[in-house]
Amino acid sequence: MAGTQRYLRYIIFAFICLLLVFFFSSSPVPSSRLQTASEIIKEQGSKWKGSSAPTSADSGVKDVSSQPNVSSDKETTPNTSGHRLGETAPGERMNATFVTLARNSDVWEIARSIRQVEDRFNRKFNYDWVFLNDNDFDDTFIKVTTSLVSGKTKYGKINSEHWSFPSWIDTNKAAKVRDEMKQKQIIYGDSISYRHMCRYESGFFFRHPLMLEYEWYWRVEPSIELFCDINYDTFKFMAEHKKKYSFVLSLYEYVETIPTLWDSVKTFMQKYPQHIAKDNSMSFLSDDDGKTYNHCHFWSNFEIGNLNWLRSQAYLDFFDHLDKDGGFFYERWGDAPVHSIAAGLMLPKNELHFFDDIAYYHVPFTHCPTSEKVRTDNKCHCNPKDNFDWNGYSCTARFFETNNMQKPEGYEKQQ
Ligand SMILES: Nc1nc2c(ncn2[C@@H]2O[C@H](COP(=O)(O)OP(=O)(O)O)[C@@H](O)[C@H]2O)c(=O)[nH]1
Ligand SMILES: *[C@@H]1O[C@H](CO)[C@@H](O)[C@H](O)[C@H]1NC(C)=O
Ligand SMILES: *[C@@H]1O[C@H](CO)[C@@H](O)[C@H](O)[C@H]1NC(C)=O
Ligand SMILES: *[C@@H]1O[C@H](CO)[C@@H](O)[C@H](O)[C@H]1NC(C)=O
Ligand SMILES: [Mg+2]
């Protein structure tokens, strides 16, 4: 007891000294006050030896200003659990969720993504987040992601039927293809799980029982970055502007992964002419009115879209048709060209949206708004030099041309 009291006296003494130093030595200019005080404390650092006050001037000043009522060690860490700082956007929420397909080993990479999405958008809207996995999520994954998401989190295991070779696939033939692709050093060319992932994202994620509860989704992958504040409800924007599918980055697909995809698309178009939209985006996908594919696609690691469209008969017929042709396993069809071709052919072109104000990075490409006004209005921290939009390997200029959109001022300088 006596020891504690002496300890207390020392703290009070140190505290009073600090206050005296602070007030008597500070200049009348408020902005230099802190600096002056901390400089003096630094100079006199040796005097504090043996007392309980910290010898580091900076931390000493910080402790005093942020915790003026320290009376025991237990109270040195303020209990802020349950405090919600930051404003919540008023108004109704949409029937929407974030969705992430991930492995347990992705936890720290997806944690980074979630933190960025929350800071820039979701802390104001608190939308739910659905996590899907072909395995059970472990405790760490659940604990970390639940703590980061401001909305409800839900964890789903994928039905093994949706993550395995369908009966009509010749697995020997598929294995041979993987060997060949490995030899050719095609990225993910020898991976079985990557193929299941692409097929799942193409045809099944929107049918998972947890996803049936929603109308809108925003897909998030591990290790992405968001560079600008998003101060409006992107789901509401989609609904109000009658959009069904959206993107931020577009590019040319690696030809070796989809040699016969367009053949399959062409037989689909012949078989199901009723599913092809009149005012479609064929000129985004093809330079010869549909004879060949130019390999342009929207990059699907970012998507905000309408789940009921993906669950429509048109999209399901499209997926089933491609799936029967076997290219998810006999080649390495990606979900990006599959979603893009579907959106480009089966939606009227005015139902697609380019989110210029969602500045985004997924290795190795960045979308950074071309307009300086957009960047400063939304507190963006991306380097405009990194913007991929007007690069020769991007298809975004083609999207602008297909839709008669005016390119933003300054785009020429980024070509
Ligand atoms: N559960 C699960 N998720 C996977 C698997 N492979 C990839 N993913 C997820 O699928 C998405 C795409 O995979 P990623 O490795 O980012 O592919 P990349 O962006 O094309 O290089 C990410 O959200 C991954 O976490 C897998 O085998 N199991
Ligand atoms: C300091 O703490 C005491 C006891 O915990 C409390 O009664 C008092 O109101 C506090 N003062 C301030 C300024 O927070
Ligand atoms: C912190 O505050 C929360 C809510 O006010 C409370 O539930 C929790 O028990 C507190 N934790 C500690 C360590 O006092
Ligand atoms: C959300 O959308 C799904 C799919 O359309 C629907 O089944 C569900 O009833 C909707 N929920 C609400 C609260 O409107
Ligand atoms: Mg990825």
TrEMBL record:
TM stretches of this protein: 7-25
Region annotated Disordered, chain positions: 48-89
Keywords: Glycosyltransferase, Membrane, Transferase, Transmembrane, Transmembrane helix
Pfam family, one: Glyco_transf_15
Polar residues bias: start-end ranges: 52-82
Any GO molecular function: transferase activity
Family label: Belongs to the glycosyltransferase 15 family.
Protein name according to UniProt: Nucleotide-diphospho-sugar transferase
Origin species: Phyllosticta capitalensis
Lineage of producing organism: Eukaryota, Fungi, Dikarya, Ascomycota, Pezizomycotina
